TrEMBL record:
Residues 252-302 form the FAM13A-like domain. It holds the Pfam family FAM13A. InterPro entries: FAM13A_dom. Keywords: Coiled coil. Residues 157-205 have a biased composition (Polar residues). Residues 157-206 are annotated as: Disordered. This is FAM13A-like domain-containing protein. Residues 250-277 form a coiled coil. The keyword Coiled coil applies. It comes from the Eukaryota.
Amino acid sequence: MADEDLFSLAVAQTIDALSFSQTHEVDSDFRAHSRATIESVRSLQREQHNRIESQYGARSASPNFLGTQLLAEYRGEATSVQLAKEAGDPQLTTAISSMTDNQCKLFKKEMKQRIHEWEGCVRDATAQTEVTAEQKAPLRSIYELYKVSKGKVGATETTRGMSTRSTTVEHSVSMAPSTTVRASDSSVVTGVGHSGTSRLSSSTVAADDTPMASIKTTPNAAAAAADTSDIGNSIPRVPIGTVPAEQLSDADLNAEKRRLKQVLHRFESEFERVKGERPNRRDRRGFTAEYHRYGQLKNEIAKREGKPAAD
């Protein structure tokens, strides 16, 4: 084909393409549509896509589905607790009583998470702020099972705390130094304290014989305090706001509360991972400012929403 013929063909094709593009449009599937009907075609495509998405797309689990899962998963444990309750024998062995302390603690933690997941699903589905007693009724056996596991964990922690305090007191007494008091003839011993130190009416006491008033910290307590400090130092901190909570906007309130909650949750999770138990008030001393500010923000949010602050 001569060069003139090729040039003529290219010109003709270009003219055809330009003319076609004036009256038609190619979609993402490389199909040509008339510009007069392209909007109708797109509308039909969107409608078809939405229909397919609504029928076959991913959906969040319904409250009924999650509730059925809870009942099925904990049916054995709940049944054992219910049978013991009906028998009226507190010594009857149940699935909870046969668990070790750590097993029961993990079991309770998992149950709490699953119950919160179900309650959150109910609130989302019904647009309620709280789940009512009527809605909880079908899961009564699950709540009773959780109550029993929580009671065992609480009793174990109480017993462990009493044992720890008793051991600490005995250790302090055994470590207390024996004392010898030399007083003048006019000195009168008026009493002896529980810590092993003497109260004297005279001030004439030999300097080298003055006893220690008390032992404030034991080696175990000091080591525990050091461990708690190490855990706290490993947690990234965030700035604590100084503006009164009532002067903050809703967005700032929720943002600061969310940041503090992340820090405190990370501290408690790390403490529980290292220690095997949740931190008590003494363990939280390093985060007193965060807890105090978090409580102020939570109370202010609850006040604005017109409901009491949650625990």
